[in-house]
Amino acid sequence: MAGTEARADAVILVGGKGTRLRPLTVGTPKPMLPTAGAPFLTHLLARIRDAGLTHVVLGTSYRAEVFEEHFGDGSELGLEIDYVVESEPLGTGGAIRNIASALRHDTVMVFNGDVLGGTDLGAILDTHESAAADVTLHLVRVADPRAYGCVPTDADGRVLEFLEKTQDPPTDQINAGCYVFRREVIEAIPEGRAISVEREIFPALLERGAAVHGHVDHSYWRDMGTPADFVRGSSDLVRGIAPSPLLAGRHGEALVDESASVGGGALLYGGSVVGRGAEIGAGARLDQTVVFDGVRIGAGAVVERSIIAEGATIGPRAVIRDAVIGEGADIGARCEFIGGARVWPGVAIPDGGVRFSTDV
To answer: Which residues belong to any copy of the Nucleotidyl transferase domain (predicted)?
Structure first.
């Protein structure tokens, strides 16, 4: 969008520990996990760049150094990236206040760093400007809003209230974790203490009559916080259901790095991803699975809706279904891990050592 670069800073909150994705996040921040061929955060940065925003501030905390080591000043992505470290947990509001000194513009677009989205970022900024809003929230309409906080709006798009999870929600509009602030609103947030935008800042703004608006759409949206959502989000990127500039023209049933090897008769589908130097044995079957770099999967193994971390080995005829296998783990032949099983890094399981069915 022409001229957008002069309109806003982009701020991405990436300080969380990603505990729901352990053991994948034991040593790696969640936004840096390989997702459809690149660290997850890279897909969001590419969307920000394509929307015309060029200055990005990363609000980091857990393993903060990993982000700067990978992205540097952002020039390889056509961006200027600054880093602000949060030394103690400050909540969403405190994290946003913590980056105020790095801002350059009067309009600030804030992203939750673990959300995979597909909305038109320029359209949200347009809504914010045309409404002369103090804060604009991206609201997504979902089929079942009961698991989320709901945000009803009036006919003019003004936010009426913020509702906690309820079994009888009055609207299908949920908070999608993307906000546009006037800079003065951020600078008015109390400094140096933990504070929640959803529970404290936004309700307080409504109470004093501030202009809080919603930008409502049906765009793609997924919180990537659990293994099941991580796998589904990666698959949706590969298949083109979720948009990413990084994958333009490369959509399909699988995304296989050119340095990986795939044996004869192996089947890869469901938006599966195979990382650098990985080896997939003859007759193996991968469905909606994320295979990190350097993984070896034996002949005839079946891996479905699972994440196999870097350097792990899956033995011949093993079955891995809805599971997470940690970095460098060694799963023996004919083992079975299903239904939410998680294997920690470096653990070795002997051939046939864990099964959920009789050994035939």
So the answer is: 10-237
